Amino acid sequence: MISLFDRILAKEWSALAAAIIAGTIGLALTSPAFLTEFNVYVMLRSFCVVLVVAFAQMLTLAVGQLNLSIGALGGLVAVLVGGMMEKLGLPIPVAILAGLLVGAAGGLANGLLTVRTGINGFIITLATASAFTGINLGITESVPFYDMPAAFVAFGSARFSAFPYLLIPPVIVALALGLFLARTIPGRQLLAVGGNPHAAELSGIPKDRIVVLAHTLSGLLSAVGAILAVAQLGSAQPTIGADWLLMSFAAPIIGGAALTGGHISVASTALAVVLIVLIQNGMVLAKVDPYWVQFMLGALILAAVGLNRARALRAERS
User: Name one Pfam family in it (predicted).
Assistant: First the structure.
C-alpha cells in the first residue's frame, strides 16, 4: 500500500514545496531580517502582481500558445486606469471596470487575430505588444500619472500585520482559476485543446473558440496585474509591465506547465512564484548584485524545461 508520504512526494509540486521549505529555513538561519514582519510583508506584496501575471501566461500555455503582449497590454491598462482617475476624475470602481474591459478586449483581439489568420500566436502577440506599447507612449508621452485617489493608494500599501490587502485579489483569482479549470466545461475544454487539438475537434470541442477564450482571459488577468501594480506603486507608470515577460514564463514553466499545451497547474504556478520571490528576497538580503536574479531565473527555466522534457521521454518509453 502506498503511504501518505509517498503520495505527497508523487505530487508535481512536492519538489517546489521542498525547495521553498529549505530556502526559508536557510534564509531564516543566515539572515535575522528575513522573518521580520516587515520583510514578510515586502515578500507578500511582491508576490501579488507576479502571481497574476504568471496566471495570465499560464492560460495561453494551456492551449499551446504564447502571449508576448502581457507586459505591453498591462502597461496600456495601467496608464488608462491612472489617466481616467487623474484626468477624467472617474470613480475608482468605474476606472477599474474600464481597465478590465480594455484588458479583455486586448486579449480578445490577440485570440481573434490568431485564429482568423492562422498565424502563430507568438507572432501575433509580438506585433500587438508593439501596438499596445505605441498607444501607451502616445497617450502619456512617457509621463506618469501621479495623482491617484487616496483610497486607491491606501489599498496598495495597507496591511494587517504582515498580510497586505493587495494580496486579496490574487488569492481570489487563484481560487477562481482552480475552480474554472477543474469544475467547468470551458476549463476542461481549454486543457483538452492544448493536449490534443485534433482529438478535441473530433470530440466536438470548438478549438478556435477555446483559443480565443484563453487569450481573452489572459488579457483580463494582465489588466488585473496592471491595476494592482498601479495601486502598489501609487502612480500609473508607462513602464509598468516592461519586466513582466520573463517572469510570466518563468513561474508556469517552473511549475511544470507543458510548452506544447494541455498541462498546467494553479497550485504549482503559485508555488513557483513563491520560490522566485524567495530567491529575489534572499539575494537582496545577501546584497547580491540584482543582475544575478535574472541569471537565476534563466537557470531555473532551463532546469524546469529539461526536467519536463525528461519526464515526457520517460512517459513515452513506458
Answer: BPD_transp_2
